[in-house]
Amino acid sequence: MLGPPILLLLPFLAYVPYVMGDREYDRICPTGDGLVTLPSGNKIRYLCDDCLIDPAAQSRFAETIEQCADFCNTEDCKATMWSSGNCFLSKLTYTGPSTGSTKGCIWMTSQTCFDSKDDCTTCLHDKEECERQKRKCEDALAICKPGDDECEKKARKCRNDLNTCEDEKNEAKKKERKCQDALASCKPGDDECEKKARKCRNDLDTCEDERSKVEKKERRCQSDLLDCQDGRTEAERKERKCQGDLNDSRSKAGDLQQSVDQCADALDKCKKSESSWGTTEGEIKCKSGSLTTATLNGNKWLTLCGFIINDVKGGVQGLNLKQCVESCSQDDKCRAITYDDHGGVCYLARKFKTGDMRYSNYYHTVLRLT
């Protein structure tokens, strides 16, 4: 027997599924009639306010109407029904609008042949009509009284109708089996689709091979860049040492003039060792697939054609390559630029590591070395 606290909670417990049911119902109806595809891939038809009366319907727990619809996945389950937040499974077949159905109810069935004229639909209607005639005949036969001529006539007519119904039922079953056999022999796909799929797979293999070659070139370029930077560091070290020797020589008396001359000669040789850098002031250009050097605004620059710095942001449009480099030279914290050759967009990079670059057409990167 329920205690007083439980009895007090019953109205609230009954109200929760009702509110949920109304919310789910309003989400689908009244415009939900029609065939839809559920997230699970199953196709279902919603019939708003048109539910068959089925005392034998089985209750199932479901939080949404879609979950309730997915329960009907067996051959003997014809439909599911959602009513006031509750889900039910039914074995009844929908044959048309139901009279007496209350609002707030949704009938969900996988039947798709309501208006179709194919053999499967004809078979289904013929079989259901046959079953109805059989039940009507059996009901009439049950109330028939022996010895009554009228009853005997009805009995004979009923037996004839029953035989006709059995013949029609057998014919309907033949059509059903024929339809099922045709359905089983139907295979998706065609030769043209398979050809396209094979071509796509071959193109993918070719693309993977080319990508591997490009990655090898990128790794080789990164290695060459590291060697170049190491050589630049060594050259700068030599230049600083040479300049220091020159300053020391100048501070000495005239008897060290010979040492000064020797140092000047060494300085000359040091500067010549850097002849690989561009000597023309402001000559910033890019030759496809090459590395070029230049001097601009007192800084030395290394141009890498076909490379982009990863994750560059805040680009400025309307500048050419040289103007982009000049804007970097005016910012003491700017270490490199990436230039979009197609869009004319300039990106400045204040932090840069050699591993931050990748190969990309139509992009050029210029490194600020001094």
UniProtKB/TrEMBL annotation:
Keyword Lipid metabolism set for record: no
Upper classification of the organism: Eukaryota, Fungi, Dikarya, Ascomycota, Pezizomycotina
Annotated ranges, domain Apple: 320-351
Entry keyword Metal-binding: no
Record's protein name: Apple domain-containing protein
SUPFAM superfamilies: Hairpin loop containing domain-like
Coiled coil: 155-217
Entry-linked Pfam families: PAN_1
Alphabetical UniProt keywords: Coiled coil, Signal
InterPro entries: Pan_app (IPR003609)
Position of the signal peptide: 1-21
